[in-house]
Amino acid sequence: MNIIIINKIQYMNIYYTKIWLLRNIFVYQIINSLMENIAVIGAGTMGNGIAHVFAQNNHTVTLIDISGEALLKSIETITKNLDRQLKKEKITQEIKAQTIANIHTSTSLEEGVKNSDLVIEAATENLELKLSIFKEIDLHAPSNAILATNTSSISITKIAAVTKRPDKVIGMHFMNPVPVMKLVEVIKGYKTSDQVTSTIMNKSKEIGKIPVEVNDYPGFVANRILMPMINEAIYTLYESVAGVEEIDTVMKLGMAHPMGPLQLADFIGLDVCLSILQVLHDGFGQPKYAPCPLLVNMVEAGHLGIKTGIGFYDWSGGTKELIIAEQFN
Length: 329
Ligand SMILES: NC(=O)c1ccc[n+]([C@@H]2O[C@H](COP(=O)([O-])OP(=O)(O)OC[C@H]3O[C@@H](n4cnc5c(N)ncnc54)[C@H](O)[C@@H]3O)[C@@H](O)[C@H]2O)c1
Hints:
The model is unreliable at 30-34 (pLDDT under 50). This protein is an alpha/beta fold. Helix 2 (45-56) crosses helix 3 (68-87) and helix 9 crosses helix 12 (270-284). The termini are far apart. It has 13 helices and eight strands. Strand 1, helix 2 and strand 2 (60-64) form a beta-alpha-beta unit. It has two domains: 34-215, Rossmann fold; 222-328, N-(1-d-carboxylethyl)-l-norvaline Dehydrogenase, domain 2, CATH 1.10.1040.50. An eight-stranded mixed beta sheet has the order 3-2-1-4-5-6-7-8, sandwiched between helices. Nicotinamide-adenine-dinucleotide is lined by residues 41-47, 64-67, 70, 122-125, 129, 133, 150-152, 173-174, 176, 268-269, 272, 307.
């Protein structure tokens, strides 16, 4: 008799657990089916990669930029990157065609975000610019849309505060190059809701990434650790302790880094590195984050790395070969 009672209890437990699971799967599916239209603002280094991964994972993407030329260039880059995936047999011709068909472009923010479920801002790293973009997105995106930023360092809480939906503003920090790198640092602002955080964690997994949840402090985790290392490498060059090749070789062979910090800085963009260091310097008020004067000079001279063809290395002939920039020979 006892056994039967226990079995009945177990049966009821299983029954209610099943109902609970089905309800949650249903809610999850509804949330995700409502998250198919993605708007990406900024079609530069990061924006084109973000558009690429969402489009490849069956989302409709509107890529928005103030520059029509940047939009054209980004479609060229996405096509080139898809061709590389095709050559390596990672995707089929059909997936390539569907991915491109999933991407639309626009130079109007208002038009571009009006039907979106998730807006990801990946415009130039500049506080005033991001605040004005978020005020505008908040006006034109549907009221239930989640607004994410790919900022490398700017406070999510500060960005969220200029909107009327701070609970729906979150950091989605992708790594460069986006189609290759697995990590998404998901940054919870002071008022970001738990539901929005878990939706974005799930969305990141759905597009094949591995999300890590962190809290909103200057530089979050990735850049708080990475940027002081890059800055120190630039100081090491500035103080003539060693040359570009020597510094990068020490870190590659000695620390098993896949590329040296100066090469990495060229990949990230020296303007981006400078603005992250300024955020760390302002946010923590400690001299250890002060940007190296050589970095400041290079940014002022327009030597921003790969995107302008020259940084610590000369990229004018492509990215296959490492050629030290003339200034450092
Ligand atoms: N480059 C990296 O390795 C990297 C890595 C992670 C995160 N990020 C972050 O991603 C963001 C973008 O960086 P990026 O390297 O792609 O910059 P980028 O300079 O390559 O591209 C920025 C793009 O934003 C566009 N833009 C500027 N103002 C705009 C506006 N008002 N509306 C629409 N578009 C506008 C520009 O025309 C440009 O095409 C930054 O916040 C940066 O900190 C960069």
